[in-house]
Design brief:
The protein is an alpha+beta fold. The chain contains 35 helices and 31 strands. Bound molecules: adenosine-5'-diphosphate and magnesium ion.
Amino acid sequence: MVDTTCQGQLDMEGALTARDRVGIQDFVLLDETTEAAFLSNLKKRFSKDLIYTYIGTLLVSVNPYKELDIYNSKQMDLYMGVNFFELPPHIYALADNAYHTMLTEFNNHFILISGESGAGKTEASKKILQYYAVSCPSTTLLNTVRDKMLMSNPVLEAFGNAKTLKNDNSSRFGKYMDIQFDSQGDAVGGHILNYLLEKSRVVHQNHGERNFHIFYQLVEGGEEDLLHQLGLERDSQHYNYLTQGECAIVSSINDRNDWKTVKNALQIINIDEINTNHLFGTVASVLHLGNVQFDSDSKGRALLNNNNAELRWVSNLLGVDAHSLQEGLTYRKIEAKKEQVLSPFTIDHAIYARDALAKAIYGQTFTWLVNRINESMENKDLSRKNVIGLLDIYGFEVFYVNSFEQFCINYCNEKLQQLFIQLTLKAEQEEYEAEDIEWEPVQFFNNKIICDLVEEKHRGIISILDEECLRPGDATDLTFLERLEDKMSNHPHFVTHKLADKMTRKTLERGDFRLLHYAGEVTYCVVGFLDKNNDLLYKNIKDLICQSKNAIVRECFSTMDSDSRRRPQTVATQFKSSLLKLTEILMAKEAWYIRCLKSNESKQPGQFDEALVRHQVKYLGLMEHLRVRRAGFAYRRKYEIFLKRYKPLCPATWPHWGGLPADGVEVLVQHLGYLPDEYKMGRTKIFIRHPRTLYATEDAFEKCKHELATRLQAKYKGYKAKGEFKKQKEAATKIETCWRGVQARKDREKRAWAVKVIKKFIKGYMTRGQAKNTDNSEYLAFVRQNYLNRLKGNLPKTVLDKTTWQTPPAVLTETSEILRKLHYRLMVRRYVRGITPQKKVQFQLKLLTSSIFKGKKDSYPQSVAQPFVDSRISEQDINTRVLQMMRNEHIKYSVPVIKYDRNGFKPRPRQLILTQTAAYVIEEAKIKQRVLYTSLKGISVSNLTDSIIVFHITCEDPKQKGDLVMQCDTLFECLTKLSVIANKQNAIKVVQGSVKIEIQAGKESAVDFSTGQEPMVYKAKNGHLMVVSTRARTR
Ligand SMILES: Nc1ncnc2c1ncn2[C@@H]1O[C@H](COP(=O)(O)OP(=O)(O)O)[C@@H](O)[C@H]1O
Ligand SMILES: [Mg+2]
């Protein structure tokens, strides 16, 4: 579980805005670049256990000397794949960033971890390794590689680390480890390069320091059996090589536990039991060797003292002949011509030879171990890999007495500082160049002058040391110092007792020289320089060891340059060239830096020694680095990233900027009101000169975030609602589509059906004349139905309508005819049924009229439609006297007529009244003439349209009136009535042209009929009555 306060702190740090409360996460953003401000920020953060701070991408780490809960798996998860500046500074952020850059850019990287001894370099490198072990993709196969990489650490630390005054777990060798990743980012292999193990520690430790951990681990933790086997006692005090520092037991180190870890680790890195035994055999042999003591005889020659047991153990463990070993430790074999001469050692010599052997054995074993580890971590797949190198090399060291080892270590640090200067300046310069930004170089201390002082060919300290080592004659450490004084007398970074001014001289011994390192002054004591540089092993001992039965030892020594004639390279020169190679390796990679600082000298948690930290900040060049970073511009960011973070601040860029990111940034900063000299637009990045500009932007962003959150929320809600709506719409569309599909299918079926029907219809039409068959049956049925329907709607309404009947199709001609007849009969029937008795009488009369006149008189057709009435004169209109006179007779019919006089044919209006016996001509009250039906011998009318009626009367008596000529408008009605009443239908004659009349008995005249323009009746010149009528209208 993560401590909640810690989590809270992290959250607080999570945003740049928290900067004021816990200092500033990136020194680049400091308002002023003074040392005081720098230190104050560092201290402020350190006091809150925030040990990491950035200078750009460089990580400054201050050793807390206590366990912090910031390396748990939760933290690892937090930093995986996150942008560098998004989370509080952390070593994981740097590791992750390097890893992801490697993956995206397919290039190699290295992380340079520097800082003085005890500052936390080794811890940092372990944290990185652990982070990769967790964060990289894993498979079982990869996990074993990963375990090996992780487990190589305790083994190498056991054999290569020791307690020093500066650090209880000080790395006494340099280590560069490549972690190889395949293109997927899996950690697939590793390789370690080791540099200059401080072998002198095997035989000598300063006060308060220890030998390498493994010796104590073996003695304290080794199983009884093993110790017995190796001839060891469980007491480190027993061994000379372990007690010189007088601090074999240290509270901070648990040798027994560490022993178990190492034993386990050895298994994991594939060192089998035999080799493990050999390995501990060599370690034990060194301890025994340390206990081999010498006495001197009277001539001062070295003799082995009585305690031969230790020597036997050595010979036993190394598998060499004890006698030869003894000889090798006390005599030197000199080859003179063909003879070999043994020259006895003095005690000092013998001790020297013994220690040289011990150092050689241990040193070679260490190299063997590194090789074994490399073999076990080796990735045999030859596909392309990218690597991240971790350089954890001994830090700058200043002891009370500093020797050859410190000289090498500090030289190494000078080289790395040089590399750092070159790379950072180079990187910065390249960045400005690449981005087309003008910049001014920053002044910094270039330590090249010190590097040159040490390594320059022929003139440097190493060259002079080598010369002294190789020079025949009595070269000693002191003659070496003299040579240095000769050659370096004017060098500003070199001082000796002789060269120093008065003041400085007091601080120097005669055998000292002082170098003014970039990290400070270090005074070196020249004693031992030549020996250590030579690192010679006497030949007879070397030859002896080559025959060792201990496989490890034999393997190590047989590979050593055994060519006695060629001098092996001196230690310093070897070291120099290995550093040169390292520089080359590193220069080809992209660099990441971790600068480790010691918070105090006493390894105490919570103590921040300002002076100490200030000194480190100074010599590590952190201020210069900061100034370089800020030289032109304190802050820079890729356009895309800058825009992504701050785009909410400008309406034009929010929520999306459609154009190029650079243009978007330009619009954004214009909107924010950046002044022209506050920023520069590079090719891919924006450069911001002052931190305050960024702060203002960041503050605005912080404010805006809240608004944004609300807006986002609203947007999100909108989005969700939209989603819902879309879903519904989709559903609706789906249903619609289905429905349309159904409809369309129906339509299609319908159309198909229609086509079939139409086709059939056409076929039927074409074959309609044929007898009913399959082709035309439907068509004919349709035609039939259609005709019948049509007929139904258009039936003649009256019997008289002969034209409306629908013309039948051929098939229905007969049917139609039957139907027509039926219909007419029906109509007739209906009509007949509807006739009243009165009407019937009327019709009978009309029928009679027809039988008399039809086709004979031209005006007949017009009369047909005019109904007959009972009488044309009502009884009131008949004079009462007349009625009186005819009271015995029943008036059947009366009508007004015009009577033409017999003499002169004058027209007289009269009433004609028909009774059952006679017809009366009435003038007012007078009966002018009474015509008995019996005397009515005939009735004539013309065939024309006139309405003249002639009554032919039997006239026997001259007093009697003659024929009666009348004009009656209702001629047909009148005559029909008369014919019924008097049964005279046969008496009615239709004449043509003229009709004779008898005016008086024996006096004749005539009525002539003709047609003319106008109807007229007049007496013609011939004395006849002339009746002119218009022609009948043709119908
Ligand atoms: N990040 C850290 N957290 C806690 N303790 C640390 C941390 N870094 C270093 N230390 C302490 O400081 C000691 C020295 O660190 P180390 O890495 O061995 O120094 P260097 O390798 O620089 O000489 C460690 O043994 C450990 O006790
Ligand atoms: Mg270390």
